[in-house]
Design a protein that fits this description.
The complex is a heterodimer of chains A (413) and B (259). Chain A is an alpha/beta fold and 413 residues long. Chain A has helices at residues 16-22, 36-55, 77-87, 106-119, 133-138, 146-162, 201-210, 221-238, 259-266, 296-303, 316-321, 330-344, 360-385, 390-393, and strands at 2-7, 60-63, 92-99, 124-129, 167-170, 175-179, 195-197, 214-217, 247-255, 325-328, 348-354. The longest helix of chain B is centred in the middle third of the chain and has 18 residues, at 164-181. Classes of the chains: A alpha/beta (413), B alpha/beta (259).
Chain lengths: 413, 259
């Protein structure tokens, strides 16, 4: 079982009252409220958290990327990946993930990731995402071609990593006359690719067709099981049997040395006005062409303020009751993790420990308890339940490297 | 649709284009806004009294199929030239409304001998000398449509209680607009250099309260077109034809009829 630590790296030093007055703060909330002095302090605290975490036995760091918003300071996940490649020694550096459609030049991305893989001595897991609706707008990228760009950029990055250069790429969205990067990954055939997601069916189907593990981001147990059902079905149609090595999950878990402190800090998961990404702005979070046509009717009503977000905004109490937010001391948290592992059976687990304005001291306490108590217990439970991760099973990096494909009957779909 | 209008689907460049047509006389091609067009408008009906009026839905908008390969407004203009050729329509007058005005301008500069008159109403297509064209990506469908009107009552008169179906239509229009006009947003960098090739008379009309395309863009069109006149309609926003159909018809009809 691969268990890793995650934080959004929240920009906790901003005027929350003004943010609340403004409304949805992801995209247009002015960066005049971004204080680089606080930013510098926070980045350095977060950096020290990762170093401390590795000392406490944490075996992986999950990094992500968001733009134009106080909830996440990682405007480029490759930056922290590169830093951690240099200052840590053993933990996996798991990017979940690079928003591929934001790349106007995927070859450049392939170069950066290859450098990170080499400098980290082969510790990179290079996840990819589509990027949220507001990320497209923040980067001037066309949301209508989001999925096409995602798939083509992926193909180009993998080609840059694996095809002997120089070669030429004349694609629909990307055209490069000379692909010949003098930076290729250390890991062969290429670094593992894990695909995080929440709602979109198309992403789940695509991930299963590539045989890339899918990481469900803090979805309810019910929704998670439905995701696995779809993934498993596509896997069968593609010619393999999916298992725990294809499944990952991200969970908000704050651990502390008392229940009261744990609860207080766990409420910070909702620090952005009730939803960790801030209120999802109806228009900016779903620009036209971005979401699946399946959801069009629901999203248009949400976009004009006439319906609730299809993503939902459950209260803290509801999220605790649903098991999406977990808090407590290691003694109370470990049994809860056992129950979730028994229900959903992933082999990859991200523990999102700290958010909002959890104090530096409490954040470090959480990291220590996760690293020294909760994660080892989870790895033991994982062994017991046979939740072997892709490293342990030496799973093929991509479908085309499979050695166990079986010819399948025609897909019913 | 009102009586007298026929609706057909024309096979063009591999997809079906919806076309409504009514009236007789000089042919007039009306090119609608980026938010699509209602089936029936007083302005369209006024034109049918004097002209053979063609109102297509742009490829990918309204009832027209979406060509997945379409990539620019210039592509749409070329498709419309093909439509006119297919229908045997000679030297039409073009009335371009907003985004349709950009299409009309592109049609005119690519075939300056093949039209009778050019009318641009609140037209996109040129970068405004001051200010920016309103970015629909940042505002809701209803707010963007409303922004096209000087008086909100005029919006309500046309769209009434906005249904989910209308929202879905607007979303599909917006998605198509993003597909072909994402950036530079709503203007051509090369158009200013090409307008000088136009010969036939042009009429550029702007609502005095156009919140979508700054008036300076219209004035620029009138400066760059060799044979152009600029007119302002009072108490009108961007969608002049919807808000002040009578005033617009009084400008446009004599302009087209005059030899």
């Amino acid at each position: 079982m691969h268990v890793m630590y995650f934080t959004e790296q929240p920009m906790s030093a901003y005027p929350a009252d003004i943010g609340l007055e403004f409304g949805a703060t992801a995209l247009m909330f002015s960066n005049k409220y971004f204080d680089p002095v606080a930013g510098s302090r926070l980045y350095n605290e977060y950096l020290e958290h990762y170093i401390y975490a590795e000392e406490m036995g944490v075996e992986g760091f999950m990094l992500n990327e968001h733009h134009n918003a106080p909830f996440c300071m990682q405007a480029k996940c490759n930056i922290f990946a590169a830093i951690l490649a240099a200052v840590t020694k053993k933990a996996k550096i798991v990017l979940l993930g690079n928003p591929l459609p934001l790349a106007e030049n995927p070859v450049r991305l392939a170069e950066e990731l290859a450098m990170i893989d080499m400098i980290s001595k082969g510790r990179l897991v290079s996840g990819f995402v589509r990027g949220g609706g507001q990320e497209q707008l923040a980067n001037g990228v066309n949301p209508a071609y989001n999925r096409e760009r995602f798939e083509e950029a992926h193909d180009l990055v993998v080609a840059a990593w694996t095809r002997e250069g120089p070669f030429r790429w004349e694609g629909m969205h990307y055209q490069n006359r000379v692909v010949n990067p003098w930076a290729v990954p250390l890991q062969k055939p290429y670094p593992r690719v894990w695909i995080p997601g929440v709602l979109s069916k198309e992403t789940i189907i695509w991930a299963a067709k590539q045989r890339y593990p899918y990481i469900a981001l803090n979805t309810s147990i019910e929704a998670t099981k439905n995701i696995w059902k779809l993934y498993d079905q596509v896997a069968l149609e593609t010619g393999y049997v999916a298992g725990p090595e294809n499944r990952g999950y991200l969970q908000q878990v704050h651990v502390s040395d008392s229940e009261e402190k744990a609860e207080k800090n766990a409420r910070q998961f909702l620090w952005m006005q009730g939803e960790f990404t801030g209120l999802a702005h109806p228009v900016w979070s779903s620009p036209s062409g971005y979401s699946s046509p399946d959801f069009r009717r629901q999203f248009v009503e949400f976009a004009v303020g006439r319906a609730e977000s299809p993503r939902g905004r459950p209260t803290f109490e509801k999220q605790v009751a649903d098991g999406r937010v977990i808090y407590g001391t290691p003694d109370t948290v470990i049994p809860k993790m056992r129950r979730i592992l028994e229900e959903t059976r992933p082999s990859i687990y991200g523990l999102w420990g700290n958010d909002g304005s959890v104090s530096n001291e409490d954040a470090r306490t959480c990291i220590r308890l996760l690293g020294q108590e909760v994660m080892p217990a989870m790895r033991e439970i994982g062994k017991e339940l046979g939740l072997n991760d892709p490293f342990e099973t030496d799973a093929p990096v991509h479908l085309k490297y499979s050695t166990d494909l079986r010819p399948m009957p025609q897909a019913a779909e | 649709m009102a009586t007298g209008w026929t609706e057909t689907a024309v096979e063009l460049a591999g997809s079906k284009l919806h076309l409504a047509r009514a009236g007789s006389g000089r042919p007039v091609l009306v090119l609608h806004h980026d938010i699509g067009t209602p089936d029936q408008l007083a302005f369209y009906d006024a034109l049918t009294a004097r002209f053979d009026v063609l109102v297509p839905h742009h490829p990918g908008y309204g009832k027209s199929e979406r060509p997945e390969w379409l990539r620019s407004v210039r592509d749409v203009a070329i498709m419309y030239q093909a439509l006119l050729s297919h229908l045997g329509v000679e030297r039409p007058s073009l009335i371009g409304l907003g985004y349709g005005g950009w299409i009309a301008a592109e049609m005119a500069i690519m075939a300056p001998r093949d039209l009778h008159r050019l009318v641009l109403v609140g037209a996109m297509g040129l970068k405004p000398p001051a200010g920016d064209i309103l970015d629909q990506a940042i505002i809701s469908y209803i707010d963007y449509a409303k922004a096209g009107f000087h008086d909100e009552a005029a919006f309500a008169h046309i769209y009434g209680e906005v249904t989910t179906d209308q929202l879905v239509d607007w979303d599909i229009c917006r998605e198509m607009t993003f597909r072909i006009a994402w950036k530079p947003y709503m203007y051509s960098l090369t158009m200013p250099h090409l307008l000088g090739g136009m010969r036939v008379p042009s009429l550029v009309v702007w609502g005095d309260d156009d919140k979508v395309v700054p008036r300076g863009a219209g004035e620029r069109y009138a400066e760059l077109l060799p044979n152009a006149r600029f007119e302002v309609v009072r108490n009108a926003g961007h969608c002049v034809e919807m808000e002040q159909p009578g005033a617009l018809a009084r400008l446009v009809v004599p302009f087209i009829e005059h030899n």
